[in-house]
Structures are given as C-alpha cells and as structure tokens.
Structure prediction request, 165 residues.
Amino acid sequence: MTKLTDTQCILLSSAAQRGTGSVYPLPTTITTGPGPIARTLNLLAKRGLVEERETSTPEEVWRVEEITRYGIFVTAAGLVAIGVDDRAGQGRGRAAVPAPAQTKAAQVLALLGRSNGATLPELIAATGWLPHTTRAFLTALRKKGHTLTKSKREDATCYRIVEAG
Prediction:
C-alpha cells in the first residue's frame, strides 16, 4: 500500500485533474517553499509516481537544462496511488491499472478534490469514521493550510478542496 503525505496527495490529485497530467503549476493550497517541494517531487519520482519529460508549455516547466525545458508529470502508478481509475487517462499513453488499497486520508483528499466535492455521509462511508472524527479531519486539513469550501447538494453540506489558479 502506498503511503502519501497530504502534500503528495494534493500534488498528484492536482496533476490528475489536468489533461496533460502536469504537476505544474502548483496548486495555491500548497504553501511549502520551493526546497521542500523539490524534495517532495524527487521522492515521488524515485517512487515512480511522477516522471520528468520535456515540455514546451511555460506553465509546466519544473527545471531548465541549457535550452531544454522539463516538466514533471503524474504516472499511471501515481494515479493508482491516489485511487484514480486511469481508463480515462489512456489517451495520455497510460495503461489502466487496478487501484490498490489506499489510506483513509488519501481517500478523503481524493473525494474532496473532485469537482463536486463530497458530503459528510460520503466521507463517512468511504472511511468508516464516525461523524465527529470526519469533521475533526476536515478541521485538521484547514489548519494545515488547505482551503475548503462548503456548498449544498441535495440538502446536504458538500465540502471541496479549492485550488485557486
């Protein structure tokens, strides 16, 4: 089972939502400086969850070597690590891989990262946590600097991680 930090989950989830799979530009919810981000991305690359490729898109550049620009992109293994079904990503040259078990925190982050977010009952069903534990986790995410929005869906409060950009 792949254990990921909140920052790693957010980076991979953000990349998974882009058509190119690029990690860059970084989500604004990431408040860590460039040094820790570089270490995090290097660790993800060593684990095969992201890969470096040439890019011509300025927003996707992670480093430049002479005149060659490189971006960093989520891999099929990275998508599996966050529980994303990669069948839709096959157009990007990735093969579908069955998703392994993932941490409850990663499950919550994946649900909150969806465009329609997740309701408290959905989060409880996904994790098996009690309601107060689930709300405490949401509070902890806010304390870590994540921006959560609330809206209504079918008379239930829906939570979503906001990526400004």
In short: The chain has six helices and six strands. Helices lie at 6-16, 34-46, 76-81, 104-113, 120-127, 131-143. Confidence is low (pLDDT under 50) at residues 87-100. Strands lie at 50-54, 61-65, 68-74, 118-119, 148-153, 156-161.
